[in-house]
């Protein structure tokens, strides 16, 4: 059952499924958004503010606003009773443009950009077009036993469980090795959403986040689980403390940080135990010790900028997917053993797409030269909105 904080997500998932065949035009949806905003403003529940701190809004939006302000764009954010929302207005050349989180030029394409945020529907479309996807299917929360049987008997371990709609890696479990782990992973997933997806896990691979802007600009970062590199002198605990002292790393709840401090928990203890290590072990020089299974930023994962290393076949794949969905801003999570080799020569999969990607991942990698996605997005903003 859902946690209190995720009741809205459950309602959204159920309602969107029921209303799937009712297609409202983008113009009508926009009209109702404006109508509701005016109504709430009249009641005094929300207000418009232009004097806001970038640290108080989402990092991806802050990156875009920082670049757009250099080109004379002014911004207003809607503030509600619980703080700043993700609803913004951009003002330039006498025009006022409304957007949520990022301006994705949703009014241009033939599809609503939210189409790609449903993992089930996206996967079906990708599969029909022969883009690489992992074997698997979706289930509702009442189908847990059926999912357990499907995963263990039909797909086989290792597996991945994730909510059907995006949760920014929350409640996702990878590299599931047995039925007990699978059962726990399903329970974790349905805390967030009533529907979940079970897929085959591709071993010996890393997750890469590719962001495509306007079908042309591509940036790629490698997502690496939290780790330390031994120096032959310091203990694992000391190396963690040293890495966490990096000023670029903050706490998961801090909006103005992309990288987070390494979390040491029972997963860490289990991984170390498999190597007969403890936090007091001194790793060999240049030895990489992983402290988490999943490459999630909130657990202290790293972001390695790798765009220049990506095989051109893979760059073309990302662009082709963006064009197939006719979406001018999209993030793609791509699982592959070797990003420098063609996707056609190895087992790989597009895990999911995101119509409002965290572009800050490319701006603030833990290593490698940052890629200015915000600059490309502002170019697209002027192209499609003005």
Automatic annotation (TrEMBL):
The keyword Nucleus does not apply. Keywords: ATP-binding, Nucleotide-binding. Residues 123-382 form the ATP-grasp domain. GO terms for molecular function: ATP binding; metal ion binding. Gene3D superfamilies: ATP-grasp fold, B domain (3.30.470.20). This is Cyanophycin synthetase. It comes from Candidatus Uhrbacteria bacterium GW2011_GWC1_41_20.
């Amino acid at each position: 059952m859902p946690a209190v904080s995720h009741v809205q997500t459950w309602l959204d998932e159920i309602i969107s499924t029921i209303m799937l065949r009712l297609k409202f035009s983008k113009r009508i949806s926009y009209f109702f958004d404006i109508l509701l905003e005016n109504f709430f403003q009249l009641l005094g529940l929300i207000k418009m503010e232009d004097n806001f701190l970038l640290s108080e809004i989402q990092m991806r939006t802050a990156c875009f606003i920082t670049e757009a302000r250099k080109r004379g764009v002014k911004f207003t954010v809607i503030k509600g009773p619980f703080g700043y929302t993700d609803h913004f207005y951009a003002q330039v050349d006498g025009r006022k443009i409304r957007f949520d989180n990022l301006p994705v030029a949703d009014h241009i394409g033939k599809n609503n950009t939210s189409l790609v945020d449903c993992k089930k529907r996206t996967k079906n479309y990708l599969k029909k077009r022969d883009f690489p996807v992992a074997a698997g299917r979706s289930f509702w929360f009442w189908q847990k036993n059926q999912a357990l049987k499907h995963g263990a008997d039909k797909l086989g371990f290792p597996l991945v469980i994730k909510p059907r709609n995006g949760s920014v890696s929350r409640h996702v479990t990878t590299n599931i090795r047995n039925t007990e782990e699978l059962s726990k992973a399903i329970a974790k997933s349905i805390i967030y959403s009533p529907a979940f997806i079970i897929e085959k896990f591709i071993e010996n691979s890393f997750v890469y986040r590719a962001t495509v802007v306007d079908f042309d600009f591509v940036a790629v970062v490698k997502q690496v689980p939290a780790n330390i590199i031994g120096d032959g002198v310091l203990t694992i605990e000391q190396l963690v403390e040293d890495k966490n002292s990096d000023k670029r790393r903050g706490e998961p709840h801090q909006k103005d940080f992309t990288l987070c401090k390494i979390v040491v928990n029972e997963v860490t203890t289990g991984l170390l135990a498999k190597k007969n290590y403890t936090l007091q072990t001194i790793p060999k020089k240049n030895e990489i010790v992983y402290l988490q299974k999943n490459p999630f930023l909130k657990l202290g994962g790293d972001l390695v900028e790798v765009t220049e290393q990506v095989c051109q076949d893979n760059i073309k794949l990302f662009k082709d997917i963006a064009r197939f969905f006719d979406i001018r801003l999209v993030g793609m999570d791509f699982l592959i053993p070797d990003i420098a080799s063609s996707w056609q020569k190895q087992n790989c999969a597009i895990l999911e797409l995101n119509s409002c990607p965290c572009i800050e991942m490319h701006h603030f990698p833990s290593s490698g030269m940052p890629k200015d996605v915000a600059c490309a997005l502002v170019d697209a903003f002027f192209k499609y909105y003005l």
